[in-house]
Every structure is written in structure tokens, then in C-alpha cells.
Amino acid sequence: MKGNHIVWDKVKAGQALFLSWKSLRLRIFLIIIVTGVIPCILIKDGILNNYEERAVSLRTSDVQTQVKIIADHLLNYNYLQETSSEVINAEIDQLSNLYDGRVLIINSNFKVVKDTYDISVGKTMISEEVMKCFKGQNTANYDEKNGYIEITTPIMQQGVDKNKDGQTEESVIRGVMLTSVSTDSIAATMEILGRKGNVLEILIGMVIFGVAVVLSNILVRPFDRLTDAINEIQEGYTGELISVPDYVETVHIVDAFNQVLARMKRLDDSRQEFVANVSHELKTPITSVKVLADSLRDQGEVPVELYKEFMEDIAEEIDRENKIINDLLALVKMDKTASDLNISVVDINELTEIILKRLRPIARKRDIEVVFESIRQVTAEIDEVKMTLIITNLVENAIKYNREQGSVKVVLDADHQFFILQVSDTGIGIPEEAMEHIYERFYRVDKSHSREIGGTGLGLAITRSAVLMHRGSIKLTSVEGEGTTFVVRIPLNYIAS
Length: 497
What we know:
Layout: H1 2-21, H2 24-76, H3 86-98, E1 102-107, E2 112-115, H4 128-134, E3 139-143, E4 148-157, E5 172-182, H5 184-235, H6 248-298, H7 304-334, E6 343-347, H8 348-364, E7 369-374, E8 379-383, H9 384-400, E9 407-414, E10 418-425, H10 450-453, H11 459-469, E11 473-479, E12 483-491
Parallel strand pairs: 7-9
Antiparallel strand pairs: 1-2, 1-5, 3-4, 4-5, 6-8, 9-10, 10-12, 11-12
Helix pairs in contact: 2-3, 2-5, 6-7, 7-11, 8-9, 9-11
């Protein structure tokens, strides 16, 4: 049991770490740290590298200048043939001691005639740098790893041969001075600079850390206020809009949230209205049945004709109650996902003919003509039961809200993607201000005539839900006093979610 707790604690710690890495505050903090510290490191390294290059360049230039002077003296004292000159030896030793280095003098036979370390005298010295120098090319190489600069300088005798006019034609290289000078002093200076740079880096890093903490909190504060506002609404729905205008991003988030909030408010109002309407619609037939039943009970002797009349009224109210319940159940089923659809390939022309055949007797009672115009043969993947509801509700409404001796026209057409069902009537029409509410549950345009016309006010809500479940669309056009047209577009091939 204890082991399970340990594992669970580790899991929660891992989740907390993962969530912290997703924190905007942490990311802003890290961005500021990175953008502040990395340039400091780069600047410090750049300064040290630049100092090193500059110091090595100056050291090389100084040594080359002094070596060149000594090289000229070597020829004057014929040092390559006789190395006993105290003056030259003193200059060479002084140069070697000054730069904590080593000087080798090599004659034209590649023999070392002088070595301040007294190690290589008499030995042959052949290297790439020496060979280049004998060809007239000075070299200076910095060995950073071992800490020295190696410089080659030619010992050049000017004006050896002269032409007939007495002008010097060329110079001859008699030997090479190979000088190695230590860079320990440069390295020591760089070490001091590096330590000071590290101290400065730490101080700047501490400042950047503090700035990062402060800025990350300041920059994220509007989002914290946004979260607090949302939490307040979540704890108790007030319907009040929130405002966090600090950033463009928070304005966009707030606008989107306020739109959702307004929609929630409308849905809540709609739900309350729906509950009230359902209660009223269900209560009305029951009240009527109770009144009729009480009337029969309170009367001592009821004539058979009156008894039959009351019972017929009671039966009508019960049928009305039953239709309301059935429509409510149908609407609840429509609110489920489209996965509840029972899709099959259906002949839409034949289905429409069957429905119109069943509804024409109702239309004939009011002398209303129902016409079906089939522009082309249509076969589609649909839920046959729900498609029957769509066609039935639209045609029934066209008959109910029509005029005496009016007409209902049903047109079926299709293109390569959709089939189109158009139901038009010559009825009373729908006022413009009522069109946006026509699909609401229990909504009736003419409430004063709703009782005598019949229906529950759920038909168009059911129809719209069924159309949307098929990934289709329904549009309405109407002119008050002239008629109404509904156009339904449904894909020929069912589009699964």
C-alpha cells in the first residue's frame, strides 16, 4: 500500500513538472533569462578573444621589430661565421630574457649556429617555417595550447650583386632567426580579466533574474485577472461581461468568452422558457380533461348526447397530450448525436409521393391543392424515419397555415452533391420579426389561432434538428399575406462525423 502511495506521489510530481513547463509565466521568465545571460556570455568571450588577438598581434609586432634590428647587426658582425661577438650575444640574450623565449640562428646550410638554450647548436634545422623564410616569406604562428609565438625572420644581405650602372639588383638571404616568445603574461592577464568577467556575469545574472521574475509576473498578471474573472463567473453565474483590455490577445479572449457567456445566457433563458412552455402545454389538456370530468361527475343525470360530447372532448384532449409527449420525445432524440442515424439508400421521389398521398386528404378538407414536381430522380443516403418527419412537418405546416382554396407545391431537385426539397404555400406568411424565432420550441407566430389550428409548436424545431443531423441546411423566405417557402438541402451521400 505504501509503495502505491510513493508511485502516486511520483506521478503527481511528474504532472506538476509537466504543467509548470507549460506555464506562460515560466516561459517568459526563461526567455528573459536566456536573452539576457547569453549575450553577456558572448560579450565576455568576445572581449577576451579580442584582447588575446590584439595582445598577440602587438607582441608579435614588437618582437619582429627587435629581431629585424638584431638580424641586421648579425651581418655587420659576420655572426653567421663567428659567434663569439659579445655585443650580438648580449642582444640575443636580452631579447630571450625579455620575452622569456628562445632564439635560434640558422645559417644558409640549415645549421644552428646559436641557441639561447644551448641545446641545438650544430644541429640541422629543417622545418616548413624555416624553408618558407629562406624563400623570403616571414612567418608568425601562435600556439595557444603551449603558450608561445614562433616567429621566423630572414637574415638578409642587401645589394650583393650590382649591374653595370652600379644599381643593386637583388638581396640574398644568408640565414634565419627562429624566435619563440612566451605568452604567459598574456594568459595571466586574460585569467584576471576572465575572473572579473565572471564576477560581472554573476552580478548581471542576478539583476536579470530579478528583472525576469518581476517582468514575468507583470506580463502574466492580465491573464491572472482573466482567470479570476472566469472563476468568479464559474462559482456563481451572474451573466456579467468581463473586460481585460491590457493586451490585444486578452481582448480577443475576453470577446470570445463574452460571446460564449451571452450564448449561455440565451440558452439558459431558452431553457427556462422551454420548461415553462412544456409545463403549460402539458398542463392545459390535463386541466381541460379535469374540468370535463368534474362537470360529468357533478351532474346527477347526464343525457347520453352530452355524455358523448364530453367524452369526445376528453378524447381530443388526451390525443393532444399524447401528441405533445410524442413530439417532445422526438425532439429529445433529435438532440442526440448523428451516430443515432439509421442510414440507408432511399428513393426520395417515392418517399415524398407516399407522404403526400397520406396528407392530401387533410388538404382536401380545406380545398387546398397539393402539387408535387419532381425535376429528376433522386436517391440519397439518409435516415428514412427522420426524412419522413422533415417532409411531413413542412407539408403539414404549409396546409395548416394556408388559406381556403390555396395550394402547396413541393419541388424535388438535385445537383452533383445535394438534393433540394422546396415546399411553398400560398398561406398567411410569416412576419419578418418572427422569422428568427420560427425554429424555437413551442414558438407560434399567431398565438391567438394556435389552438384552433392545432399542433404543439415543436414541428419546425424537430425538422431543423433532423436536417442538421444529416449535415444539411434549411432556409426560409416568406412574405406576410402571400406565402412561405422552405428550402432544404441535404447531401446525397451521408457525411459521417
